[in-house]
Amino acid sequence: MAKVEEPTVEVKLFVDKEKRKVLFAESDKEFVDVLFSFLTMPLGTIVRILIKQSQMGCLDELYKNVEDLSVDYFQTKACKAMLLKPLNAAASHCRRLKINIDDTKPRAVYICRNTSCCARDDCEFSSFPDAACKCGKTMQYGRDMPENEGDSLAPDGGGLESGVFGKGLLKFVITDDLIVAPASTPLMLSLFERFGVDDPENIEETILQFNSQKIISLLKRSLTSKQPLTRIYFDATLVSVDADLDVLPEQQNDADEKVNIAKMKVLRTKTDSLLYVEGDAEFIDLLFGLLSIPLGSIIKAFGQWPPSGCVDNLWKSIDGSAKGCVRPECQSLLLAPKSAPFGCAAAKVLGVDELAPTVLDINCCFRCLKNYGFDNTVQCRYNCMAIVKSAKLYELNPRRAPKDRSGNSESYVKGGHMRFMVTGDLHVHPLSISATLQVLRDGNVQTEELEEREIGLTKFQVMEIQRAALMGRAALSSVFLPPNKKKRKAESRVASRAES
Ligand SMILES: [Zn+2]
Ligand SMILES: [Zn+2]
């Protein structure tokens, strides 16, 4: 029997061997579709695929926090899955990619199997494991959603010329820093000029087959390098580059409204070093929620990101150099990708829309579904004799706590009086005396050096914290400490040197 071969996409690279540089690449739309799909991926998925070595600001740390924090601090057990394995709202498109590196299972259906469930008339299902039914039981795996069911954005097929996101039969040119454009003579000439190519003899053409491992590697390099193709081809080692927060464009301050977060306490030394920030569940939610936001919407919210990478050039190409080659119905899917249903506080602050919850049609009653599962489709006739032979299942918010517990289903982390400490590099701990002592010991700080301040946050400041968390390794220090920038930069350089 023939071995099943792993799918690959072919890319032709134009290499300046002397300068050891890939000048640009040429490909069909299959490769460009895969590149564009990066924008639809939630940040938590990117961190997971890159095995917590994405080097995106503090996001690897943030992801580990969610993994490590006891499930008791979350509204439901499902909240962890929502952050660690967030659903891609464009999954129905991405599953048509030649190579889909997002291995999140997007279409699993979980239901309460309790036949005497008090909520049996609600006909609810969850898209995440371990959601809680109103009756208190945990929802269990039922089946995967059939294809095309619940797809509000199901692609139309579109024939030969139609790709997943791209269209047409033409070739694409992709620069080393991931600007995508349809191939044309004027473009080629301008590229030759840009790279100072006098003699075409100096350019070597090489075919590279990208398998999923290479695509993952390209994703990582697109976040951390301005020359991802060169780095892939010459297998250059990655250097961790920390964002220089000084060169970031100033954000508009017109959205300066208060957000619903209790006042926070900042513990710092008199010599301006931040020990930690004490915040409530709402504050932690604004940080954790970042993991559920798709990359494209993050780039939209902050204009430019990440400073050390070039994946934002993909985003800019969609409404720029590649505009005519992107299917019109996919433009907003890539420029402002939605988050999965039941968005969160972080998405609200960033202005990210959420997908509407799914309604599933089943061809039996809900009770027969519980009793006999999804596979048997004629059970009502033989089993319950019900006249109604079809029903609708409604997607529930997996953050909703069972009836006997009060809770805010808008947030992942349980509210109440719980306080958390967040260190400068976004390490989150439930607040305790021993955790405080540990921070003091680690920082070698005497108690007389300590200074405590209380602050309330505006929406603008929350966005600044989110932005800092995406950009650098010292997110909170860069927002909460006075603008002693020189010292801060020196610190972040030391940190990046220590890590590389
Ligand atoms: Zn139930
Ligand atoms: Zn039935």
Automatic annotation (TrEMBL):
<dbReference type="Pfam" id="PF05056">
    <property type="entry name" value="DUF674"/>
</dbReference>
<protein>
    <recommendedName>
        <fullName>DUF674 family protein</fullName>
    </recommendedName>
</protein>
<dbReference type="InterPro" id="IPR007750">
    <property type="entry name" value="DUF674"/>
</dbReference>
